[in-house]
Amino acid sequence: MKGTNLGEFEEVVLLTIAALLNDAYSVAICDEIARVTERKVKLSVVHAVLNRLEKKGYVKSHLGEPTKARGGRRKRFFTISHAGKVALTKVKEQRDQLWSLVPDFNLKFI
Amino acid sequence: MKKQGTPPRWALRLLEWYCRPDLLEDLQGDLHEYFERNIEEKGVRRARLNYIVDVFKFFKPYTVKKLDILDQLTQFVMFKNYFKTSVRSIVRNKLFSAINIVGLAISMSICLLVISIVSESFSYDKFHADYDRIHRVITQYQFLEDDPNDFASTSILAGQRTMEEVPGLEASTMLVSNYSEDILINDKYYPIEGRFATEDFFEVFSFNVLRGNASTALEEPNSIVITDKTAERLYAGKDALGKTMVTKSGKNYLITAIVETPPHASHFTFQSLISYSTYKAERNENPDSKYWISWNNIWSNHVYIKLLENTKPAEVNARLLSISEEENKASDRISNTVSLQPLTNIIMRSDLSNSNGKVIGIEVIWILTGLTLVIILSAGFNYTNLSIARSLRRSKEVGVRKVIGATRGHIFTQFILEATIISMISLCISFFLLQVLKPQFVQLLPEFAEAYQLNTEVSLVLYFILFAVIIGVMAGTFPALFLSKLNAINALKNSGSGRLFSRVNVRKALIVIQFTLSIAFIVAASIGYKQYKYALGFDLGFNTENILNVRVQGNDVGQLEAAFSKIPEVTDISKSTLVASTGSTYSATFKFEDPMDSTSLFYNAVDEKYIPLMKHDIIAGTNFTGLSKDPKEESVVILNETAIKHFNMGTPTEALEKNVEIDGKKLKIIGVVRDFHYAKIQDDIEPFGFRNTNNQYYIMNLKIDTKDVLNTMQKIEQAWDSVDEVHPLNAQFYDERIERAYADFSILFKVVGFLAFVSISIATMGLLGMSVYTAETRLKEISIRKVLGATEGSLIKLLAKSFMWLLCIAALIAVPITYFVFDSLILIDMANRINIGVIELFSGVVIIFTIGFFTIGSQTWKAAKSNPAQTLRSQ
């Protein structure tokens, strides 16, 4: 196992899944990341990351109901698992801790 | 909103192929969503392109299916186990295995023979370099509006025009057949045969020239190229190259090259080749006669061309057609159309007359292959049938295997392997049987002996093995499918109950098919036999007994007659052009009063003794009187009834003294002979005439009266040798020649009879297996019935009834179909044919029923006789 560390993009994807709540499936996740970060996101990359996250146990997935769109294929919806929440919280705590160490003025010069 | 356009199918398929099934649906959906989005934004074409790119992009380690390497590994490891269990099962069920192996071996040996035949047939003429570019120029000959006839030969004119005018040829050559001479060497004459060939002969064909210059050998007049065998025969141990041959007729030929004797796989062969310029010079000695080079003299010349690499045969054909049209304008009544025939096709076309060598005919190959398939199918049915019947016992084994973790694929492999092992064992046996069959087949017909060597080559052995594997897999598929489908729990729990046994109908159908084929074969063989006997015993309308036909072979007829007449056993001698009723014919144009109305008159030129010797019946007029005439003085003719009727000359007596025109000569009818069979008996009787010229005697008919045939033949041979010491005597009794002429039927009878025997044997073995099996499985039932008071007779009836029903169904199918095929398809074209009687039709049924009854009866009898107490106690 790679350990429980979250990569940068993994973190973004995981956050997006959390943000999208019950509507988190690959294409929607892609669009959302593209909208927020304004960078080009490739579906294949997101797909690979989702797969990896699922392997690490941070997300769970289930197939939705078939619809007319998508050529009749079902969507795979992702929800964040307990481990995923823990990992996200842990990352946030680490960041917060680091933020708290940064003196105020340093940032003002950026 | 445009919604047209779908993703490329093949990309979809590709995705389905590589993608793990649990990821597939979602991924397809995603790609589809993007695809639809792209259609709106960028158009259909870009969308499709993107889709394809995406499909390739997703080809990543995590999406790709796990390969079933592990599974394959198991199969491989288990192979030894399968092999072991298969061998054990084969050994344990000795009867079933023996039936399967023997049945397969017999039918496979026939298949091996046919494979050898087919592969040899297709190897013909392929030793020439660029054989696919070599073609023969063939001719379609049409007389007025008659049906056209195809000839393998063509006219010299057509050959010359092809060589000179057709573009795109790399090389071309022309052969003129039927050259024969006697060569004088050291005061002894040696006969030699050959063909005239133009100088580019070795450019077209790749015969191996051993000595001399191939490109110039056939240029000069009076040059001759001989084969190494001929060289050895004529000049044993000496160098023949550069020697001069002196012929009996006083010509000198210079040997310019020695060529290796044509290989067996060449459709034509030769002892020697003489330069075409020799032929031309000989013909030009008589400048008045131009027939040899005329457009209509298509009888003995063969033209071969080699196309350039980028020339299409169709282009050449178009050119040949235009040449033909041009030439046909000048000739009235006869039209000849020349076209190309590929070299490798020559051996396959038996419908061309005047072939200059061997011909096999694609029909022979098709018939042999078809009949063989039937036989092998029958043996395969046995395997399938018996395996399914036995599957009851094997189902437990399958159950255990499945419980331990075998998949359906594993079980399938196991049973296929078992079938393949059986077919491999059969292959070994059949290989020996093949060695027995080969000479039998080759001896069937002289043509076969000439065309086939049937050597066992390495490639052929590979074909054999491949064939055995295919047969094994095919025979094993059905049982393997059936057994591998079994559910583990059912197999273990229910073994012995009838539910596993739902394939009974398939088995019954297979038995019916087997016996239908067997009956059909027997019926066909007996019809063939009857037609053969009928043809031999047919009253031809003249006498053929005790008549020896001697080929004159170019000798002086008078000398021969003098020599033969000294033999006391030879009571009478006559002379003729041919031996009638054995298939060879001569014809001339025949006209009566109207010069425009002509027909073909078949004829036989005979002397005055022929008609009484053969006991032909002259119904009006007289026989020829006096000695036969020089062709220039020919003045009289004897016609048959059909010829008289053709031109409505009235009664035979009225037709006498009338004049007819034959080959442009005015001849007076002096007699009318009763119709007889000049051609073969399956052909109608055509207009025929006896002519009285002395330049066309090729046969001497000796009436023999002797008890000691061998001694007489020796005397005749001595007499022959005193006249001609070069050529051996070529003589045959008339009746033997007729037998030879109707060999078709005897072969039909022999081949089909043999196949009938084989198919009956196989079907009977299958039936035996099935009845053994039935008797075994129903032993308990039989015992109980017996205890309750059933008689042995009623038990046999009970067991045999279902099988006899199957035989009845088989008979009901086979008899009408065979009758129809022979009555309406095969015998329909024959002018004189047998009527298919009850005996022929039902002999097969009776034979099959007898065999079937004894097979089933013996087994059920055994079961019925057994002591019920014993059986019930042990169960």
TrEMBL record, chain A:
Gene3D superfamilies (UniProt xref): Winged helix-like DNA-binding domain superfamily/Winged helix DNA-binding domain
Domain Transcription regulator PadR N-terminal intervals: 17-89
Pfam assignment, any one: PadR
Origin: domain of life: Bacteria
Protein name: PadR family transcriptional regulator
